[in-house]
Specification:
12 strands; 231 residues; 4-stranded mixed sheet; alpha+beta
């Protein structure tokens, strides 16, 4: 547990007076998303009363994010859904582009990732993973690499599943496997099965908040005028 989340879920961490959740809600509603659900775990009671459809992951302490995804299966089986990590912010334009992407599964990525990652990490390869795409389709994601040439972009943690796409996820997983999986590993496994995954580029500003250093960096960038905010 980092100091940022000692007394709150990650989505309630604030940047320039706005919680990450409020920034996400703003982007989603501006993009025309009418209903927003949230899978909660740690300190989940703090998310009551926010006009959200709440899903619970009772095993949040011992499972990974794919397990949390399955907690919202009722929605994902019914209609296309935008899925967002809790520790990111992004623009309504990015959400709209992702919502209109072709294919049963799509993800948003940043082709200009290196400028930001070079400021977040002394060595960008410390955190970055493989990412290759061609013609708007994902070819590779999520492997540790030793050379920047294997990274054409940074996956942002923003996805879209149609019911057909989510059916491919459910057909692939057992509950035991889901509990261990992170999202990029799942995406890589789906690729290996021949599943097509579309990619769309980030439009406008975005960021990922791992720690206090990230918050300090984004604050500096906002004050410099190099990071439009709110997105």
């Amino acid at each position: 547990m980092c100091d940022l989340t000692r007394d709150r879920p990650k989505c309630l961490v604030e940047l320039e007076g706005h919680s990450l959740l409020d920034l996400q809600m703003s982007a989603l509603t501006q993009a025309g998303i009418q209903e927003v659900g949230l899978v909660r775990g740690y300190l989940g009671e703090m998310l009551e009363g926010r006009h959200l459809h709440l899903f619970d992951n009772p095993h949040w302490e011992t499972t990974n994010m794919v397990s949390s995804l399955l907690c919202a299966a009722r929605w994902l089986r019914a209609e296309p859904c935008i899925v967002s990590y809790s520790d990111i912010f992004y623009s309504a334009r990015t959400v709209r582009a992702l919502a209109h992407a072709q294919g049963a599964i799509a993800i948003a990525y940043d082709p200009d990732w290196l400028a930001l990652w070079s400021r977040r990490f002394r060595d960008p390869l410390q955190d970055a993973e493989s990412f290759r795409q061609e013609g708007g389709l994902l070819l590779d994601i999520g492997r540790k690499v030793a050379d920047l040439s294997e990274i054409q972009g940074q996956y942002t943690g923003l996805l879209r599943f149609t019911p057909e796409g989510f059916a491919k996820v459910e057909a692939h997983l057992t509950l035991e496997e889901a509990g261990r999986l992170d999202m990029t590993t799942l995406l890589r496994q789906l690729l290996a099965l021949g599943t097509s995954i579309a990619v769309t580029e980030v439009l406008g500003s975005w960021g990922e908040v791992d720690n206090g250093n990230d918050l300090a960096l984004y604050t500096r960038l906002i004050q410099e005028g190099s990071l439009p905010f709110p997105p």
